Amino acid sequence: NYSVVNGLPFPEFNTNAHFMAEDGTIYFGGEGGVVAFHPDSLVNFEISAPLGIQTITADNGLFPMDYPLRDGTIVELPYHKNSFTITFSAFDLRHPQDRIYRYKLAGQLDKWEQNMSGDLTAHFAGIKPGTYIFELQSTYKGWPWILENTNVQIIVAAPPFYLTGTFRIVIALIATLALLAVVLLLIRNYKIRKEVQISRLEREANQSKLNFLKSQMNPHFYFNSLNSINSFVLKSDIRSANKFLTTFANLMREILDNSNKEFVSIEEEKEVLDKYIALQQLRFPGVFDYRTIAEDQVKQRNIPPMLIQPFVENAIEYAFVKMPVKGLINVDFGLVKNKIVCTITDNGIGIENSQKLRAGRIRKSAAIKNITQRIDMLNKIYGISISLKFTQVNPTSKEFPGTRISIILPDI
C-alpha cells in the first residue's frame, strides 16, 4: 500500500492504468497525470511516531506536571478535579495532518474511542475515585493501528469522608431519626400535658365533690343544736342556753377553720371532737359518757379533718336507743405497723339493731354514706389508701353487741 505519505502527488488512480517497463519502472495513470517510480528507489517507510500527553486540564486550569508526559507516568488528581481534558500528539514532522488517534480509559472507558483527524483531545467527566490507565494509539488513515501504546496511570483521590455519599446518607438518616424523635417527643409532651390537664381537672372536680361532701356532714346536727338552744330559751334556762351557744359558736369556728385545710393534726382533730361530744352531751344529758385518747407519738401526725365526727355522731344518735344503762363512747388514736389507726367504740345496740329501728323512718342518715364517698375521693385525689373496718365489740350479746369502727390511714 502506498499513499501520499509515501510521496505520491495524489491519491486517486485508474484501476487498469498501469504499466511496467523493461527496466522495472512502474507507471500509473490517475486524475493528476502519470506517476512513475522504480521499486528499488523506495526508502523504508515508518508510520510509527513517539506519542506524548501534552496537557491535562480541569476547570480551565492546567495541572502542574512535567509535560509532555511519557509512557508510564503516574498522575494524581484531587477528588474535586475529577472532570478533566487530556491533549495529546505524535512527534510527526512528515504528515501530522494525516495522523489519527484512538484512546481508552481502562476502568471507565474500556472500548477504544477514535478521534476525527485533527482532534487531539479526550474529555472525561465525573470520574469516580480510583486508579485508571489512559492508553493512546495512533496511525495514518488507511494504515493499521500501531499496537505500541502510550500508557499513563491516572489516580483520582477519594473525597473526605464528610463529602462522600455514605456520609450524606448517614447524615440524612440521622437527621430523619432526629426529626422523628423530635416529633415523637412533641407528641409525647402533648399527651403528657393533656394527661396532666385532665388529671388536674379531675382533681379539681374531685376536690369540689369532696368539699361538697364535707359541707353536707352535719346539716341535721346544726338544726338539732339550734332547736336545743331554742328549747333552753323557752324554758328560761338562760345559763344553759348561753353555755350551749358559746360552745356551739366555738365549735363552728373551728370546724370552719379546719374545713379549709386538706389535713390537720390529730391533736387538732381531737380538740374539735371533744367540743363536739361535749355539746352533744348538753343535748342528751345523762345518756352517755365519752373518752378520747391520742398517743403522744401520733398527736402531730396528720389526717383529713372531720373524718371521725360522723361515726361519733352516728353512735350518739342511734347506738343508745332504749338502753337501760348509760352509753359509753371511746375514741382512740394510735400507731400500728406504721399505720395510723383511729378506733371509735361504743357499747350500744349495734349496727343491725340500729338499722331495724330506723327502717320505718322517712329521713335516712346520710353521715356514713357521705363519709364513705369522702374516703373514696381522698384515695383518688392523694393516691393513698384509707380503709374502714366494722366489728362487734361483744358478738355474743344480741341486744347490746356494741360497735367498733377502725379507720386505717397511711402515715401522711
Average pLDDT score: 84
How much helical structure, as a percent, in the residues?
A: 25-40%
Rg value = 59 Å
Order of helices and strands: EEEEEEEEEEEEHHHEHEEHEEHHEE
Main sheet summary? 5 strands, mixed
Q: Residue ranges: pLDDT <50 for 5 or more in a row?
A: none
- Arrangement of strands in the largest sheet: 6-12-11-8-9
Q: Total strand count, please?
A: 19
> Roughly how many Å apart are the termini?
117 Å
Strand fraction: 25-35%
Q: How many separate helices? A: 7
Gross morphology: rod-shaped
Structural class: alpha+beta
Annotate the secondary structure layout:
Layout: E1 13-20, E2 26-30, E3 33-37, E4 51-58, E5 61-62, E6 74-77, E7 84-90, E8 99-106, E9 109-114, E10 121-124, E11 130-140, E12 150-156, H1 165-215, H2 219-234, H3 238-259, E13 264-265, H4 266-283, E14 288-294, E15 302-303, H5 309-318, E16 327-336, E17 339-346, H6 350-357, H7 367-382, E18 387-391, E19 403-410
Parallel strand pairs: 6-12, 14-16
Antiparallel strand pairs: 1-2, 2-3, 4-5, 4-7, 7-10, 8-9, 8-11, 11-12, 13-15, 16-17, 17-19, 18-19
Helix pairs in contact: 1-7, 2-3, 3-4, 4-5
Kindly summarize this structure in a few lines.
The chain has helices at 165-215, 219-234, 238-259, 266-283, 309-318, 350-357, 367-382, and strands at residues 13-20, 26-30, 33-37, 51-58, 61-62, 74-77, 84-90, 99-106, 109-114, 121-124, 130-140, 150-156, 264-265, 288-294, 302-303, 327-336, 339-346, 387-391, 403-410.
